[in-house]
Amino acid sequence: MLRLSLIFLVSSLVSLWGSAAEEVTLFTFTAPVAVPGKVLPAGKYLFKLDQHEELNVVKVESPDGRKLYGVFVVKPDYRLKAPAKAGLIFEPAAPGSPQVIKAWYYQGDKYGNEFIYRK
Fold first, then answer.
1. For the whole model, what pTM was predicted?
2. Environment class of residue 4 by beta-carbon count within 10 Å: exposed (0-12), middle (13-18) or buried (19+)?
3. Looking at the predicted structure, is the pLDDT value of residue 10 above 50?
4. Segments forming the whole domain that contains residue 28
């Protein structure tokens, strides 16, 4: 019974995300930031949500889309209130370390994209 409930929940989340297939945001960082497995230097980066039936990923590219910096598995992260503007949530970082991106929220969407880090 638990397995069927979990499958239903995932199906519901996918259908809710279905309208957000074109989520793209350009971010400008004035300092290095960390994503799973790498550090992005200060600069401009395009974040794109790429949805698949069983897996969602965020692609981080150059603003013109010619250079791919990484493809990162994400999981849904729900907020009670949809943000008015796209934005990022950062994890606390040690002094002198780059800020760690926890999640990306697209404007007007209660479901964000939480990056998955190895522990």
1. 0.76
2. exposed
3. no
4. 2-115
Is the pLDDT confidence value at 83 over 50?
yes
Q: Taking a C-beta distance cutoff of 8 angstroms, is the pair 72, 57 a contact?
A: yes
Contact by Cβ (8 Å): 103, 87? no
The answer to whether the beta carbons of residues 114 and 76 sit under 8 Å apart is yes
Question: How many domains does the chain contain in total?
Answer: 1
- The residue type found at 24 is V
